[in-house]
Amino acid sequence: MNKFIKEEEKYRGKRFSVVEKIYENKEGHEYVRDVVVTNDAVVILALDDEDNVLFVRQLREVIGKETLELPAGIIEDDEKIEDSAYRELEEETGYRAEKMEYLGYFYSSCGFCTEKVYLYLATNLKKGKPKIDEFEVIDEVIKIPLKECYSMLEKNELIYASQNIALALYYFQKRPKI
Predict the structure, then answer these.
(1) pLDDT tens per residue, the chain (178 residues)?
(2) Sequence-ordered list of residues with C-beta below 8 angstroms from that of 157, at least 6 positions apart, any chain
(3) Residue 88's Cα: distance from chain center in Å?
(4) What DSSP assignment string belongs to 106-146?
(5) For this structure, is 134 an active site residue?
């Protein structure tokens, strides 16, 4: 393992900071890693009683287009991970889940970012009213049959990595009949 020498925060924004970390390898050479430090996130695979998956159509200014995504969001500093999953599902879709089941986690890009993404399965859904964050642009909530989601996944029509991982974990852990 390489030796950590020091770190210095270079930027602090609302959603993340950038830290310059200096390490020394076993040959004694120092090198720098720029690290994006951010809160972890949750992604929710919400499945209704008819085996439909809830997606949100959301504007993503960073890539300049709308995307079709599973409900997701940042875990607040003082929040339990599972509570964040319940909150984000209701905020973005208006649905409340009676059951929230942990599927797994992954790192979004561990070469430069600290973000860990937790995946949950939400079931026994009850319709309510969305409480969308003032800075989010969610155009609509869309229900897509689970079988169609797997067809879309196979055709590379779902471009958001976290939903692909959530669907794959659900498939391999639960082996639904599709």
Answers:
(1) 899 999 999 999 988 999 999 999 999 999 999 999 999 999 999 999 999 999 998 888 888 988 899 999 999 989 999 999 999 999 999 999 999 999 999 999 999 999 999 999 999 999 987 666 666 666 788 999 999 999 999 999 988 899 999 999 999 998 756 5
(2) none
(3) 10
(4) EES-TTTB--EEEEEEEEEEEE------TT--EEEEEEEEH
(5) yes
Is residue 172 classed as helix, strand or coil in its secondary structure? helix
∠ CA(85), CA(86), CA(87), 5° rounding? 90
Phi, psi at 134, each rounded to 5°: -60, -20
> What amino acid occupies position 174?
K
Domains, the chain, ranges and CATH?
3-37 (no CATH), 39-174 (3.90.79.10)
Q: Of the residues 79, 134, 154, 157, which is catalytic?
A: 134
